[in-house]
User: Fold these one by one.
Assistant:
Number 1:
Amino acid sequence: MKTTTRLVACAATLAIASGGLLGCTKPASGGAPAAPAAAADEVTASAIGPNPTEAMLTASRGPYATGSQRGNGSGFASGTVYYPTDTSLGRLGAMVIVPGFLSAESSIQWWGPRIASHGFVVMTIGTNTVTDFPPSRASQQNAALRWLTTQSPLASRIDSTRLAAGGWSMGGGGSLDAARSNPDIKVVVPMAPWNPGSRYAYSKPTFILSCASDSVAGNSANSNVFYSSLTGEKAQLTISGSHFCPTTPNATAARYVVAWLKRFLDNDERYSSFVCTPRTSYRNTCPV
């Protein structure tokens, strides 16, 4: 069940204490909200699904059963669309994920049902050629997002104001490029991204997944540089493994990616503490 409430952004600092979230000022007597300490814009918080738990985020599937179907449109290679079968959830955020250089859709396909089972429409795609560089992958990702939100059988279930771009390796570099050129992309999830020499000075919430032993998209020339250049909410999680670390199921990586999408694509403040949970090799702009 989807519930939407209008909230005034808290002026108090959010802090994590024993796994709990501290922050908002209490209502004043008489039921009216207390005035914030500083001026704040009104935000919309949307709670989709059950209250989050660590067990729910690290499980191999989220709370929703998923279906899938193949999809093919203009400007990108075919892909697979994953979606919750529960049609009572209202309009959902949507994401397109792109593979890396010389790699097929199958290399990133596990992310589709994993993320969709938490209440998103997710499309994993191939690329027109496996040698396409990041700018071409960005163009294809944007084409897939347009098809997904306007022509796909799932279009009526998607909120086109809540779109995300993700990808691995050159697909990760492409997702960063796609977000720079497409104002409809609100959240970015590059995984072991490769696009050396690039900077991304935009404020869109961006979660970077890095591999500790990456000798292909070395973090010092890619992920670390991208993280430093971003100006908005951002996080970088480094997990063990080679450049291929995002291509096999990883509970820690999925837990943080899903929490990031729920917090910033769904605007669900219940996930703030999960986004901010401290961990070795995890840096972020918390508190959010």
Note: The first strand starts at residue 2 and ends at 8.
Number 2:
Amino acid sequence: MADALRKVSLLLADVDGTLVTRDKVLTERALKAVHGLHDRGIRFAITSGRPPKGMAMLIAPLAIDTPVAGFNGGLFVHPDLSIIDEKLLPFEVAKQALDLIASHGLDGWVYAGNDWLIRDSKAPHVDREGRTVQFEPKVVKAFDDQMLSRTVKIVGVSDDLDRVRQCEADVQKALGSRATAARSQPYYLDVTHRDANKGFVLDYLSRELSIPASEIATIGDQPNDVLMFRRSGLSIAMGNASEDVQRQANVVTDSYDDEGFGKAVERFLLHE
């Protein structure tokens, strides 16, 4: 509990598996918790593998006034979705990542600018992702060089979770420091610019908002959240996180389907 009593000036939250439920619902308790932070003078920010447009529905209800970090830090926007900063994958890195994803039997998605590009509208998780982000992908015959030259994020998708895990390891080994590759969900492998990760998001917000990293709390559930855990003064893992992720956080809250986010804010930040 001592870790949870330190000064906190900003809470940086992951979205899926953390802020919203399994059904992508922002609960009344979570909403009240964030407004409780505002009342205490604690700022609130969100980061996700989602495109910024896919988080637009959260900005007004949560009164977010901080930069929104989409694509795990590949694209920062103002609350009105105007672009602040964008980190594109180098062309050759994007091409190699897509080849590796295909060689492991995963479906590939490309995010370029504000476009979500896919090759098969019936592929796993396309419908679900469309409902989650509340906009539709564009179906293309192939990912051409023009698309790959403006790519912010590539996603490998499969319901064979062992394949996704192995693909993550092989992409990390092949691309090394040229890109960031990590699972944002057990069925999603995200590949972004080498500086686009949630640790970078924390550093960026710390700098831009003039808040020391030691005064930033973080909350998340996936392996790609661990990088921001390591840099923050207080890290909170969700109850639905794996044991490995939980071990790397200071404290653990309940599951996202048991008001884990709201409970964490109440207990560790508002001390209610």
Note: The longest helix spans residues 161-175.
